[in-house]
Amino acid sequence: MNTQDEVGGDADAMVAGQAQILRYIYGALDGIASPSINLDGLRRLMRFLVHRKVFHEMAQPKVGDGEGGNDNVYSLNHCSLWLLRDADVTLAPMVMMRTDPSMILPLHVLSRSITEGGTAFKMIHGEEMFEFSSSNSDFNRVFNEGMACTAKITINAILASYKTGFLGTKGSVVDVGGGTGVAISEIVKAYPHLKGINFDLPHVISMAPRYDGVTHIGGDMFEAIPPAETIFMKWILHDWSDDDCIKILKNCRKAIPKESGKVVIAEIVNHPTGHDPFVDTHLTYDLVMFSHFSGGRERNESEWQRILHEGGFLRYNILKIPTLQSIIEAFPE
């Protein structure tokens, strides 16, 4: 197969490839089975993936005067590059997370959730996802690894496109719901004048490695958030209802200075009629939120504006970056 260095380099193509892989990850109805040592099955699977433009297919070259083998060979493209496990940035852990049986099974009762009410995840597992994660260490690991890989992709896009956003920031930045600390560690590495605080539930923090310049704090964002000049949240508010989001934002408002503080939010901003390459995933992800979280949803700008205002943030900016999420800057004044 071709290497990443040989294929990579075209930023627009890599973004398009990321969007394509995400569409397939969340295209549950298309369910791609895992390959096995069954060569016939593997060949048929690769034929499907080539058709979906996840890989390129090439005729096997002839050796000497021979006719070459009967099987074709396959190479990576801008889509399958995102599946390399040992790459600096990869979606492979996200694929493993979204194809984990614990995540797949709730989708089978989606229609029941619509007709009867309630959360599909709870119908299957008997408890909400965060409670399930706290009591199931294997799922907790898979979930955290999936979140960590997307954190790195998102934070790379943020650091490349939002250079002045943290440059003028002083003091400390707290990553609320920061998981194992990947995002805040990258922020502090890029801006070493900042003090990083990674804030999440205790069972998540217990799995977080040490990072230079980062302090891990366990707690509950519905109770209180550690004080800081800037608060960063990536893919947190979409897990919660409007009322819960307003509670979180009010706690953010209490934690930052009134005059100079701000909240930097990385979330999907739905524009169903736009030309964003991620629009399919935006809409599909809203159904994922519906099936996995009680009250979870993706929001459009007017919906974001309402919860920001009610949470104490009257001024905001939305900045598009080359990944699934946008940046929402929110200011209390």
Describe this structure in words.
The radius of gyration is 21 Å and the shape is globular. With 333 residues, the chain is of the alpha/beta class. α4 crosses α9 (137-161). A seven-stranded mixed sheet has the order 5-4-3-6-7-11-10, sandwiched between helices. The chain starts with a helix and ends with a strand. It has 15 helices and eleven strands.
Distance between the termini: 54 Å
Shape: globular
* Total count of helical runs of at least 4 residues: 15
| Helix share bin | 40-55%
Structural class: alpha/beta
| Total beta strand runs | 11
What can be said about the biggest beta sheet? 7 strands, mixed
GO molecular function: O-methyltransferase activity
Protein name: O-methyltransferase C-terminal domain-containing protein
Domain O-methyltransferase C-terminal: 110-313
Active site: 238
Briefly say what this structure is:
The chain is α/β, with parallel strands linked by helices and 333 residues long. It has 15 helices and eleven strands. It is globular, with a radius of gyration of 21 Å.
